[in-house]
Amino acid sequence: MSEKYCLTARQAEVLNFIKFCVNKHGYPPTVREIAKGINCRSTSTAHNILERLVLRGAIEKGESPRAIKVVDVGVEPKPGLYNKYTVIDNETGRAVDGSCFVLMPDKDVAAVGALFQYAELTPNTELAMDITRWLSRLDVAHE
Predict the structure, then answer these.
(1) Which end of the chain is less congested by CB atoms within 10 angstroms, N or C?
(2) pTM
(3) How far apart are CA 30 and CA 64, in angstroms?
């Protein structure tokens, strides 16, 4: 399927959890693991969400409990200075409240200044050093 599918927030949460598990463990979760991972008391609710994801073309399911495959939709990213991402907590596999914008300092001079300023002001010295090293590797100018 090459069309972009539209998901509810709960369906997107399940899809993100499946992707997280595949990236972390190398295989998809079971329905019971999905229910637990999204704080759902009922495995039938998790199963219903999976069925909706199949109908929307976001996943394919096989016969075994772990036979879940995320379908790439092939949507081209929109050009611009930033991309919007869902931030996933590495410990839980759940989406963090809110959204995050990823600055692209190699395409946006204002982002470079903002990042250098943040590095100067943050009390987290390790983060400040990481930001400065990263910007140095990008070889971007700072005024």
Answers:
(1) C
(2) 0.51
(3) 9
